[in-house]
Write a structure and sequence with these properties.
about 375 residues, alpha/beta, Rossmann fold, eight-stranded mixed beta sheet, five-stranded antiparallel beta sheet, 15 helices, 16 strands
Length: about 375
């Protein structure tokens, strides 16, 4: 039994929604979707800061503009591959505050003005709050920006060549939670306990065939009592993007995760689900609904498989650290004689080292590049 934050506005809404279901409960996936994406109360939809000192976590783009600059280098290399085409359209999914987009566009405008001149930058962003932030952050590049909602982008014809990317997007897709119990696969549901006025979890026999098929596709065999997350939406997202993209287009995915053999390894008995609230990590998703980030590691094996089904091939699979090195991040380090630790050069050098070395995060984050045939 978990006590809920009764002051949170989404709690009464969730309690009422659960009461109205026939089962008096909803799958964890539906609950997570409410917590993160409810139009008014959802974590990613409300106006409270999420990233940086005032938020709940840091991202690579909130630490330094170098990540955006390295992506700009990769886009330049991709654009140079086909000298016959003048088209250059870049799409970013889930651009958030726009800091990554700004660093990327600033670098293209500064280093390769000819490429920047023919560039069109598409942004697909679900949150109205973040769309407003993006307009402010990217005001200097407003002539290059086209912004779409999630239900709009696939209705547009894909440009001749597209470079589509996401950074820490798939880990925030709602997931199903499962557990192996005496030879049966069980699924997590969330209910509302009227006596204690609290959210509670219950495990029911799994009746969703998609979850069985997902596990079978990667030959995943959970151990007794092992819990795991299944991200059907990430697989669907990659497949849909792959089918929509035109030949020669790239899909670059940056996220923390690994291949199925590691994500569902026996040592991960409690799965990978984590929550972040005020820069503290914990694994209880039933507290602070709508006020904390809920994430799980991305199964990149499923992403590769979905890409193949959509007509893509895996061009590169590597760590974020290796990707950044290949894009020239070490060339950004500068020698300096200043003793001021807060000088621009010192701060940039420190940010680069943090990206490459801090807590092993750059090894945990992976980069998958898929290309449409």
């Amino acid at each position: 039994m978990i006590e809920s934050n009764s002051s949170n506005r989404i709690v009464p809404w969730i309690a009422l929604a659960i009461r109205e279901t026939a089962a008096k409960a909803v799958t964890f996936c539906e609950y997570m979707n409410w917590c993160l994406y409810h139009p008014e109360f959802g974590y990613y939809m409300n106006t409270r800061p999420k990233v940086g000192k005032e938020g709940d976590f840091y991202t690579s783009s909130s630490i330094t503009p170098v990540m955006g600059e390295m992506l700009a280098n990769r886009i330049k290399a991709w654009a140079d591959e086909d000298s016959r085409s003048s088209a250059c359209t870049v799409t970013e999914w889930g651009a958030g505050t726009g800091k990554l987009a700004r660093a990327l566009l600033d670098k293209l405008a500064r280093a390769w003005p000819d490429l920047y001149e023919r560039l069109e930058y598409w942004i697909i962003e679900k949150s109205e709050y973040h769309r407003q932030l993006l307009l402010q952050e990217l005001a200097a590049h407003s002539g290059k920006i086209r912004m779409w909602r999630e239900d709009e982008w696939s209705q547009q014809p894909c440009p001749e060549r597209m470079f589509m990317f996401s950074n820490e997007l798939l880990d925030a897709f709602p997931v199903h939670r499962v557990r192996q119990n005496h030879g049966r696969l069980m699924e997590s549901w969330v209910a509302w306990d009227e006596d204690s006025q609290a959210l509670t979890e219950r495990w029911e026999p799994c009746s969703n065939n998609q979850l069985y098929h997902y596990l079978q596709a990667d030959s995943i065999e959970l151990k007794e009592s092992q819990e795991a997350e299944i991200n059907l939406l990430a697989e669907r997202w990659v497949r849909q993007a792959a089918e929509w993209l035109s030949p020669g287009s790239c899909l670059l995915t940056i996220d923390y995760g690994d291949l199925a053999a590691e994500i569902y390894a026996p040592h991960r008995m409690k799965g990978t689900l984590m929550c972040y609230y005020r820069h503290e990590a914990q694994d209880n998703p039933l507290i602070y609904p709508g006020e904390q980030d809920i994430t799980s590691h991305v199964n990149f094996s499923a992403c590769m498989r979905a890409g193949r089904l959509g007509g893509m091939v895996t061009e590169q699979w590597t760590t974020q650290k290796q990707f950044l090195v290949e894009q020239g991040i070490l060339n950004e380090l500068q020698n300096h004689a200043s003793r001021d630790p807060f000088s621009p050069v010192a701060r940039k050098n420190r940010a680069i080292r943090q990206l490459l070395l801090s807590d092993g995060m750059s090894e945990l984050f992976k980069v998958l590049i898929q290309r449409k045939l």
